[in-house]
Amino acid sequence: MRCAMLDRKLERILVAIADPSTGSNRAVRRAGALAHKTGASIELLAALPSAVSAGIIHAESEHFTRLESEENRRLLERMANRLRREEIIVNTHVETGYPVHEAILRQVRLTQADLLIIEARKHNLFARLLLTQTDFELIRRCPVPLLIVKRGAAWRRPRVLAALDPFHANDKPTELDGEIVAAADAVAALMGGTVHAAHVYRPVLRLIPGMEMDPGFVATIPVQDKAYTREIRRQFYEAVGRYGIARNRAHLLCGDPVIELPAVARSLRAGLVVMGAMSRSGLKRIFIGNTAEQVLDRLQCDVLIVKPPNRR
């Protein structure tokens, strides 16, 4: 299954809204912009956990849930009407009684959505934008591309950064980079943007045997280091060449991906970073490692998560 945004028309967008009472929503605005370009319809979803799990007395829980659902439906309709005035087809839905991520995934399947959009939110007034456990469950389990909206600014001829791993570390399938580039190409084509590619590799580290020291202290052999770097460069530029990305838009960096990937996204003023999620060692469960989680939290721009083909 190739990226829906590339192989066929983007027809159905599902927007999961964590708190409709906040009013203007970045994810809704991003969905509206994509709908204008593609003619897609939009469904706005508010998923509420059951009132009982929140500690409400059982006798009052049904009444409380009904009131909250009605209020959320009213707020969703207000958002929907703004989009309808722009001649976009919009439906609304409120789901209760499920864990939030399960409710969202259920609606993805029921609506046959081509794209799921969520908004990263600040945990408090002073916190930076951080992803929640629900967000990471969606990253792991969503069967369609997942767009995480972090910025409110419109995509105007955006730079789209494809985060590649041509060396397929951690058992990444070779097809995943193709999916990442395909999705980046599709967004860039829709929004009049350009595609860049980046890969961050770690330096060669060699522990000095027989010495008692902090394990953080390492040494490299210059000849080995040069050979390693040369091979990294060769494979990276061969890969970007296969995908039709110009060398002046290919960014190869040495260091910690948690630091370097967000840094290159900032330096490019990227509007979107496209990353892949994979299954670990042949398991069906999608794996997101600690490094990837930190990268996702540190990125300041929007992030699009795609999966390998036939593994969604």
Helix content bin: 25-40%
Number of strands: 14
Number of helices: 9
**Can you tell me the CATH topology of the largest domain?**
Rossmann fold
| Pattern of helices and strands | HEHEHEHEEEHEEHEHEHEEEHE
Structural class: alpha/beta
Assigned CATH architecture of the largest domain = 3-Layer(aba) Sandwich
For the record, the count of structural domains works out to: 2
- Shape, please? elongated
Hey, roughly how much beta strand do the residues contain?
15-25%
Distance between the ends: 8 Å
Task: Describe the protein in words.
The protein is of the alpha/beta class. Helix content is 40%, strand content 21%. The chain has helices spanning 4-7, 26-38, 58-84, 100-111, 133-141, 175-191, 222-242, 257-268, 290-298, and strands spanning 12-16, 41-48, 90-96, 115-119, 121-122, 129-130, 146-149, 159-163, 194-201, 250-254, 272-276, 278-279, 286-287, 302-306. A ten-stranded mixed sheet has the order 3-2-1-4-7-14-11-8-9-10, sandwiched between helices. A two-stranded antiparallel ribbon has the order 5-6. Strands 12-13 form a two-stranded antiparallel ribbon. A hairpin with a 6-residue loop joins β5 (121-122) and β6 (129-130).
Provide a quick synopsis of the model:
Strands 3-2-1-4-7-14-11-8-9-10 form a 10-stranded mixed sheet, with helices on both faces. The protein has a two-stranded antiparallel sheet with strand order 5-6.
Task: List its salient traits.
312 residues, Rossmann fold, ten-stranded mixed beta sheet, two-stranded antiparallel ribbon, 9 helices, 14 strands
